[in-house]
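Hi support team,

I've been running sequence recovery on a batch of backbones for a student project. Most finish fine, but this one hangs at about 90% for roughly twenty minutes before it completes. I'm not sure whether the input is malformed or the queue is just slow. I've pasted the structure tokens below so you can try to reproduce it. Let me know if you need the job ID as well.

Thanks,
M.K.
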């Protein structure tokens, strides 16, 4: 069992920055991954970024060059640094933990409760 608690959401104007944190009871072992996903009202949940146990990262095209995912293994904490925020980044952001499937795609089986990010124009 992995418990995840997000923090750091809030309201910001377009062009601003926020850093989300996710405190985990433990990090996934080898072959695991952690990620950030988001869901806007009326939209499907989408992957934003993920980081694998060996450190490789992946980003959605919509956030490449603006968001940075990182982790502090000593603190069991996952981060998402969000820069140059746009109104379309407004969503509930979720931290998730899981593993990589045979195609090296993340499969998440643990979720946090979410933290709201609102970007105004």
């Amino acid at each position: 069992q992995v418990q995840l608690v997000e923090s750091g959401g809030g309201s910001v104007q377009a062009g601003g920055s926020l850093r989300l944190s996710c405190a985990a009871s433990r990090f996934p072992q080898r072959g695991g991954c952690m990620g950030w996903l988001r869901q806007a009202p009326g939209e499907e949940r989408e992957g934003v970024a993920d980081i694998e146990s060996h450190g490789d990262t992946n980003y959605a095209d919509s956030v490449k060059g603006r968001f940075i995912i990182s982790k502090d293994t000593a603190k069991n904490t996952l981060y998402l640094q969000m820069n140059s925020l746009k109104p379309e980044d407004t969503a509930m952001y979720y931290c998730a933990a899981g593993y990589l499937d045979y195609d090296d795609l993340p499969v998440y089986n643990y979720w946090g409760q979410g933290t709201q990010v609102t970007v105004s124009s």
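--
Follow-up from support: It reproduced on our side and the slowdown came from queue contention, not your input. The radius of gyration is 13 Å. No action needed from you.
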